[in-house]
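This section describes the prediction task in plain terms. A model, or a person checking by hand, is given the sequence of a single protein chain and must write out its three-dimensional structure as a string of tokens. No templates, partner chains or ligands are provided. The sample shown here is typical of the held-out split.
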Amino acid sequence: MSRGKVWLVGAGPSDPGLFTLKGKAVLERADAVVYDRLVGVGILAMAPAGSEMIDVGKNAGNHSMSQDEINSLLVRLAQNGKKVVRLKGGDPFLFGRGGEEAEALAIAGISYEVVSGVTAATAVPAYFGIPVTHREAASSLHLITAHRKAGMEQPLNYEALAALGPGATLIFFMGVAALEEICAGLIGAGMPPETPAAVLEKGTSAGQRKTVATLADLAQTANEQGIETPGLIVVGGVCRLADKLAWAEERSLHGVRVFVTRPRGKNSVLSKTLSELGAEVVELPSVRTEFLEPAGELLERKSALSSYNWLICSSPVGAEAFFRFLRRERLDLRSLPNLRFAAVGEKTRAALEERGVVVDCCPEEYNGRALARALLSRLRPEDKVLALVPQNRESAVVAALREKAVCCDTAAVYRTVAEAGFVPQLRPGDCAVFASASAVEGFGSMAGGRNLEPLRAFCIGKQTARAAKQLGMNPIVAEQASIKCMVEKLLEYHLQERSGQL
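The expected answer:
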């Protein structure tokens, strides 16, 4: 068996938007992912569904795996021929023990690469409005770790740090547990007690919080506010700018974590919009669509296709399947001059109109029942209708038309398949966006029977909401099946909650 390779990849501080393009490209083709606890869940969700996920995270005094064991694990995985991504918070060579792991790989003769990441030293303060350098406040930046290797503990040289003067910014990694000692050490070494300082907790995530005070008061204030790890300690005049330059907290959806469950490749617009509004977006595709080959049940309808007066597309996938069928069978759309098109929702209409088809019927309310009502006002008694539907799924528009004795045939052209993946530990205030009942069911399967009641489930349509309710969620229904409407619903709910109206 040929040997594999290891990539030591910096995942940045948490926000998936700060993950590098190279890091993402490497992660998406990994066979095994070995990750730390500081890696954001939105980044972990980028790993391939079939990859082996190995948590080697460390908490203070609680290591799931020693560093030597991690080194051996990386070597063993590579020797078994795997493409291994070692995901580390921030940058792998900045207090990330990446150097130790690279040494172990080199000694074992394992091929490896280092993919640098955005360091928390600059990104986290920036998300709190603190520039680590500023012409009027700081001309140098100093990074210090408050954690030492067992057996090699040495006290920090507070005298040297204090002697750097008021023009220096000090950033302490892994120092929240030693906050009182650090503050006392700096003051004891001669740093003025009134020096501005801050503790920055969970920076760049939805849970980020800060404490800004003087060096003399910082430890007590952080303790009173319940500041926890992970966190950075920043000392220096730049901390005075934290309130003045704060921007992340001003965004409309700051503090909200949203799981976007749409299939891979269909999340980008929604995810981008939510991210721009300040949400921490975690893409967790819960389903994927697969075309039925060679053409699903459309092949059975080929000879009768010209007899239909209306074609119903309830999703962009159905529209794509129809035109794939035409291409495969060398059929010209002009050979179906009597065929009119109906679509559920703006995305489906756009998918048809991009192919030169003007949609004849699309309701203002984007759901199957509404489309059926709109069609009933236009159908003649002799009209025949064909609906393109997913395999083994109920179609609301078909059911509504048949209730009114409309001749409505169906052709299954694609199927919905549940994705394999993981759902992270839910936190109070977490939200999820569901565009279909199958997405809800796929998410439930990924959650593995976990209690989903705390999750705020934003659902497109009543059928999706019913599926969410069956899994114990409390669904919030968007009136229309559009990204705009879904985002507006999220904003409305969050603003009401923040103002105490919920």
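For orientation: The chain has four domains: 5-118, 122-249, 251-286+419-498, 290-417.
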